[in-house]
Design brief:
Shape: elongated
CATH class of the largest domain: Alpha Beta
Number of helices: 9
Distance between the termini: 25 Å
Number of domains: 2
CATH superfamily of the largest domain: Spore Coat Polysaccharide Biosynthesis Protein SpsA, Chain A
Radius of gyration: 25 Å
CATH topology of the largest domain: Spore Coat Polysaccharide Biosynthesis Protein SpsA, Chain A
Strand order of the largest sheet: 3-2-1-4-6-5-7
Structural class: alpha/beta
Number of strands: 7
Helix content: 40-55%
């Protein structure tokens, strides 16, 4: 199996048949053995029924049906674990990605990249969606030094080995490329087409913004401190403790050398609080370090080997 196409679908009954047809046509031009995996993410319309009819005609079409809506990250994770292809390609089911771009991504990844991400240079979304995407992109670049122009584009192709020991939770699907870059995989980009949504309703809403921001913090933490979290929390603890100690030394100087009253000074409480917080951060860092060591004590490693010759 050369190519596995993984497509999550949630209430996309009006798009499924046309999408299947266009993806099949594009895959045939590659002349490579392929399969399509649709994940029905708890649809409440006739999405699954239409997929089931298509699967009876095409032995290379597989369906994963969720009992309820678990989200795009869970759908992709399930699809990645079922995929058999040497390359795994993803796209949305809303018909905004162009299946005709598939050969272009395949050609690019065969140049030696591990991941190739689509870049929607001319987006056909609403003004509000483009505005929030622009803000999110700037925030990502600030927090995790994201070098991809369009992390939110679902049209991507990966080598199969990218998903060894990779589990997706929450809203982490939007940061897959960044996580893989952290692991040392080579990331490329290709300019792709983008179409306005013709059928169905967008699943994007304002609730996803704070969720995405929290996941961004997780990626930023994992990027820098996944092996030694004590360096972060211990550093904050030492800084807080030293600042508190300096304040307390100053307070003692006022008391014993200048004879001033310190009982009613808020600075005294601040110094004591900073010392306590410093100790707590230091202990928290040590506990986090122990938990990370337990996490990596199994089959997971904080390093990734490309090849052994």
């Amino acid at each position: 199996m050369e190519i596995s196409v993984v497509i999550p679908a949630y209430n996309e009954e009006e798009n499924i048949e046309e999408l299947y047809s266009k993806v099949s046509k594009s895959l045939k031009t590659t002349k490579k053995q392929h399969e399509m995996i649709f994940i029905d993410d708890g649809s409440t319309d006739s999405t699954y029924e239409k997929l089931e009819k298509l699967s009876k005609k095409d032995p290379n079409l597989r369906i994963i049906k969720f009992r309820k809506n678990f989200g795009q990250s869970a759908a992709w994770d399930a699809g990645f674990k079922q995929a058999k292809g040497r390359y795994i390609l993803t796209l949305d089911a809303d018909m905004q990605n162009d299946p005709e771009d598939i050969p272009k991504l395949l050609e690019k990844i065969e140049e030696g990249f591990d991941v190739v991400s689509g870049w929607r240079t001319s987006r056909k979304d609403s003004f509000s969606k483009k505005m929030f995407s622009s803000f999110s992109r700037r925030l990502r670049k600030l927090v995790i030094d994201d070098r991809i122009h369009d992390s939110g584009c679902s049209l991507k192709i990966y080598k199969r080995e990218c998903f060894i020991d990779l589990d997706l939770q929450g809203e982490m699907h939007r940061y897959i490329a960044e996580i893989l870059a952290l692991r040392g995989f080579k990331i490329g980009e290709v300019k792709t087409n983008h179409f306005p949504r013709k059928h169905g309703r967008t699943k994007y809403n304002l609730i996803r913004i704070p969720k995405g921001f929290l996941d961004l913090i997780v990626v930023a933490f994992w990027q820098k401190y996944s092996a030694r979290p004590v360096h972060l929390f211990g550093g904050i603890g030492i800084l807080s403790g030293l600042l508190g100690a300096l304040i307390n030394i100053y307070i003692l100087y006022l008391k014993f050398f200048l004879g001033e009253s310190i009982a009613n000074r808020p600075l005294l409480l601040l110094g004591i609080l900073l010392c306590i917080l410093g100790l707590q951060f230091l202990v928290f860092g040590l506990i986090s370090d122990i938990l990370v060591k337990i996490y990596y004590s199994g089959s997971k490693k904080h390093y990734h080997i490309e090849k052994i010759i």
